[in-house]
Amino acid sequence: MKEAIAILTGGGPAPGMNTVVGSVAKTFLHKGYRVIGLHEGYTGLFNPNPRMVDISYPMADDIFNRGGSFLQMSRFKPTQEDFEKNFNLKFFTDNNIKLLVTVGGDDTASTANRIAKFLEEKKYPIANIHVPKTIDNDLPLPLGTPTFGYESAKDKGAAIARAVYVDARTSGNWFVVAAMGRSAGHLAFGIGEACHYPMIVIPEMFNKTEITVEKIVNLVVSSIIKRKIMDMDYGAAIISEGVFHELSAEEIKKSGVNFSYDEHGHPELGKVSKAHIFNEMLEKKLKTLGIKVKSRPVEIGYEVRCQTPVAFDLTYCSELGMGVFKLFSEGKTGCMVFLDGEGNVSPLYLRDLQDPATGKIPPRLVNIHSDKFHMTVDNILCYITPDDYEAAKKYVADPSQFDFLKILNW
Question: Which of 78, 89, 284, 364 is deepest in the core (most CB within 10 A)?
Fold first, then answer.
């Protein structure tokens, strides 16, 4: 029987999913392998009748530059009982599968790590190589290397945010923009930096103080007052949805939102408009202060996940897909494929990235100590400092409450 590989996609979509799948398929088909695609993520590995498809070269060629994922995705996360009772080894033996390729983000990578350990413990001769994706850019790849999908999502998000900023300037309004980013603020910061937004709020900024609803709102108010002092009655603030993950239960109540939670314990942020929530809180604060400003909410969410990949991700994902075969041919397993800035492929072992206590892959946060971050904060953001106190008294009795550095305890 011809040797085969299986490939699945897990978690949420990101631009470049099909590019990876198509590139993996083309490469292995060239080498004489059969390529099997598994629908519904990890579900197929713990199901006696998995949904599967043989990927041909014409099929791979048809999908490689499309957005979304040809292989249906799933957030299914196997339990220990699933591993003990439901792992479908028969799928691998019946199809002569020698390699499992998984494509996904942090949860998918953590499950891939568990599968690699399981296969090793059971002495099953099946290699496992993971391809890291997420528009959140929060997998801990070395040297700031982006996860695939991030650049395409940022590009689409920046197109939306630019148009919003032009609207603000044209209409003399403010906009409150919310961007995806469950654990880290890369996407919000990247979009805000690209569009010169006068206020960016990400969870990493609160490294010296607790995140509260009041502090989030006061940062935006600080920017509004500063721009008024600068004779600019318009602007936009972009806020990462991840700040909700850091709010205490009491603070979440103050926001007025009752979240449901997914099977991994994460608040289901996609079910509510974070921009609407932030904007409602801002409007209440401005009314209390007597500051007349019109603000409007804009959500940057699901519309950036399935867009057509930009050239960066088309080439990056193609190289990652081809890199899977390079690692496999070298006998590597239980690793992620990593491509450095010079285009060299190397293995990044999941066991070296995991938290020793939980076994999970910790998120990579925005480096708020970098020159990139501080140059943006110092030169693009607009906010109240002690030098502005006298002028700010025209709008608020105590400007120090809206001092950017004081709010963050920096």
Answer: 364
Q: Please report the sign of the dihedral spanned by the C-alpha atoms of residue 115, residue 118, residue 119, residue 124.
A: negative
The topology under which CATH files domain 153-304+380-408 is: Rossmann fold (3.40.50)
List the domain boundaries for the chain. 4-148+309-353, 153-304+380-408
What does the alpha-carbon distance between residue 283 and residue 288 come to, in Å, rounded to a whole number? Answer: 9
Confidence (pTM): 0.91
Print pLDDT tens along the chain (410 aa): 899 999 999 989 999 999 999 999 999 999 999 999 999 999 989 999 999 999 999 999 999 999 999 999 998 999 999 998 999 989 999 999 999 999 988 778 778 878 878 888 888 888 999 998 999 999 888 888 999 999 999 999 999 999 999 999 999 999 999 999 988 999 999 999 999 999 999 999 999 999 999 999 999 999 999 999 999 999 999 999 988 878 887 877 777 766 677 666 666 766 778 899 899 999 999 999 999 999 999 999 889 999 999 999 999 999 999 999 999 999 999 889 999 989 999 999 877 777 788 767 788 999 999 999 999 999 999 999 999 999 999 999 999 999 999 999 99
Q: Which of the following is catalytic: 106, 136, 155, 403?
A: 136
Residues 6+ apart with CB under 8 A from 313: 15, 16, 19, 148, 149, 151, 152
Instruction: Tell me how long the chain is.
Output: 410
Active-site annotation holds for 136: yes
Q: Which CATH class is domain 4-148+309-353?
A: alpha beta
